Amino acid sequence: MDKEQRKHCIPMAKQDVLDRVHNFYEVALGYNEEQVVAEAERCLQCPNPRCVQGCPVDIDIPAFIKEIKEKNFLAASAKIKEKNSLPAVCGRVCPQENQCQQMCVLGKMGDPISIGRLERFASDYERKKGVTVPAKDESSVTGKVAIVGSGPAGLTAAADLVKLGHEVVMFESLHLAGGVLMYGIPEFRLPKEIVQSEVDYIKKLGVDVKTNYTIGRIYTIDELFADGFDAVFVGSGAGFPNFMRIPGENLGGVYSANEFLIRVNLMKAYMFPEYDTPIRIGKKVAVIGGGNVAMDSARCSLRLGADEVYIVYRRSREELPARAEEAENAEEEGIIFRLLTNPTKFLGDESGWVKGMECIKMELGEPDASGRRRPVPIEGSEFIMDVDTAIIAIGQSPNPLIQRTTKGLETTRHGTIVTQEETGATTKEGVYAGGDVVSGAATVISAMGAGKTAAKSIHEYILKKKGAKKGE
Amino acid sequence: MYEIVTKQELAPNIYLIELAAEDVAKKSHPGQFVILRLDDKGERVPLTLAGVDLKKGTVTTAFHAVGRTTKKLAKMSAGDSITDLSGPLGNPAELGNSGRVLLVGGGVWCAPLYYVAQALRKKGNKLVIVAAGRTKNDMVYEKKLKEISDEFYVATDDGSKGYEGLDFLADVLKAQKFGHAVAMGQVSLLKKVVDLTRPYGLKTMVTLASLMVDGTGMCGACRVSVGGETKFACMDGPEFDGHEVDFEELVKRQRVYLPEERMASMIYEKLGGVKRG
After folding, report:
1. Which among A253, A276, A278 is the nearest to B41, CB-wise?
2. A256 to chain B, minimum CA–CA distance in Å?
């Protein structure tokens, strides 16, 4: 391979834009065998790989790429799974451009290695061939651990703990496990079948998954301890929708992004009436917010048949928190960006349905606490946007149920649980936490990293506890 | 899977089902609800609990077969199973001792009202109970409510049984002093009771059946204005101080999906359901 060739990554095919705006099938189509090997061949196999430093779960990236180069795809998948129990998910939704790929040496002179696409191929290959389950380590001290929430943090912690020989029970409040991977991220970015096969893998490892159990309602954390659990991991996520607190917000046709996405993704309302749950979408949809959840909501709206879909965001394009790839996909599909614009009021018709949105123009002032320039309203710039559906995607907070019902669990004023960063330990003995419930809404992979850290600490905690008992 | 242990028709189109769910039964309290999902393509339907049987490990709930899911459930029998049952959800009803309590239930809601009444009775309250219905045909739990009450009234919207409407309550409220009132029923009934108790400043707890998807605080579909603040019925309720509730907004929000519900129900009735491939 010459230098020039090495500069450019192999592009990945996407579903044609004219087709994909009318369906919920996956947009990114993945590499084929020839493409994946060609991309793997670009890897320099650095002796001191920087990519690994960018990975929150420490995957031995050069090692798995080497296996792909040699067409040992199952070996590649096994290598990834040593550290990551959800590779098919991560290969699709991780922001690799800010993590492993950002560190890649090739990125200095051209495109970095497409690590995410390689990971996706290896895990998809293994899934099609039939997943092998590693043998359980029966030798270690066995404790009993409750995992609260079955999202990325919980799944990761559960997998690591069960592999270490512990009895693991995972409680999920919804009827399907997977958390945000099931209810939040749309089918066209992350097919639900793939999520369920990753959940099945966790079950095959030996995790007992109990759906329909809302911890904080059916059992408190203290009741779990009383019931014989040695430790509890709280990975309950950030599933509580934030509203704008402006007039007219309770009109019909004004959804939280959570409600909209739960209906569409988890309940499959896009297949109503074959599926029972309906979703009402208008002709002109405004999605308020600029993150991945906003992009997902906008792109779902388009696929449900809306004529015009707007992203209404109060800062400028530069501050858009969504992944660049997702914003580009959205734009390519025809989503219209109304930047430096903030809603001030929803207007309704006589039946109580939203018919318009009063907005104000914004300009950027001095940087705020987040380091981004603060948006400031321009006086007198109010105008009305003609919309018949509005989706509020300005962020999610942790659900307060567990925090409200657990004595001794310290929380911040944002409702997140206070933990020691290096261990995931909370202020309550035996209780660990990680993922969005600690960090506030963030990425799948950072939640997985936190799940991993907590699993390690829980293992050590149980060893110590049991050891102490034995020594008595 | 959750097995239907018993099922009975309480009145035309109103059913009581008992489902095997031991863990849920152990932790349930009056005023809380469960969410049912019949099959893999089903919607999540919240239903208020009408009782539990700890020995049998079952929960009981009553429903009016008006939508696609409830019609489908009405066709199921003891021995059949449903895919999902989640609960208990929501907060328990306020069950303190306030002396004398006025309880008003409408139609199918008389079943969960009885569960609340039993607990209030145990706390030593005197109970004045009104069993109401639109017509004499949607009266349920009349006998049970009468037995547990100190004073009992029947009322129907059309006067086909007992008092016509709830206006007679003005005299009841004038004649005796109540510690608080509890109303469970359609929004029109809740609003009526609240209007009647307002002149007496009588605290009136109402249970709201807002639209819900998850029932655990995620979707916000159940949001309702209470005392000028937005609350989630699933997290902060479902029982609220009725004098603070914006009923007009609630009614509008409840109607949001009526066209889709009618369509789904019609497809189910006329075509025997949608093909489930």
Report:
1. A276
2. 7
Q: How far is CA A340 from the centre of its chain?
A: 26
The residues facing B34 across adjacent strands are B47
Q: Is A268 left (phi over 0), alpha (psi -120 to 50) or beta?
A: left
Place of tokens 């020594």: A471
Q: What does the pLDDT read at residue A354?
A: 94
Question: Are both B84 and B103 inside the same structural domain?
Answer: no
pLDDT (0 to 100) of residue A141: 63
Flag if B253 and A250 touch (Cβ within 8 Å). yes
How many CB atoms neighbour CB B143 within 10 A?
Answer: 9
B42 — contact with chain A (CB < 8 Å)?
yes
B275 → chain A, closest CA residue: A274
Query: Do residues B68 and B97 share a domain?
Result: no
Whole-angstrom CA distances from B118 to A302, A317, B127, B144 are 51, 60, 10, 10
> What pLDDT, on a 0 to 100 scale, did the predictor assign at position A469?
63
Chain A residues with CB-CB distance to B86 below 8 A:
173-175, 212-214
- pLDDT above 90 covers a percentage of chain A that reads 78
* CB-based burial label for A238 (10 Å; 0-12, 13-18, 19+): buried
Would you say residue B58 lies in a domain? yes
Q: Which domains does chain A have, with CATH numbers?
A: 3-129 (1.10.1060.10), 144-239+397-471 (3.50.50.60), 243-394 (3.50.50.60)
Please determine, for residue A472, whether its predicted confidence score (pLDDT) is greater than 60. no
What does the mean pLDDT of chain A come to? 92
pTM of the model: 0.91
CA–CA min distance A325, chain B (Å): 27
Question: Looking at residue A141, what DSSP letter applies?
Answer: P
User: Last residue of a domain, which of B171, B205, B239?
Assistant: B205
Beta strands in A15-89 (DSSP E): none
- Residue B275 predicted with pLDDT over 80: no
Residue A2 exposed, middle or buried by CB count within 10 Å (0-12, 13-18, 19+): exposed
Count the domains in chain B.
2
| Domain edge (last residue) among B89, B110, B138 | B89
Task: Specify whether B106 is located in the same domain as B152.
Answer: yes
Q: Report yes or no: B218 at the A interface, CB cutoff 8 Å.
A: yes
Q: Residue B68: its pLDDT value, please?
A: 87
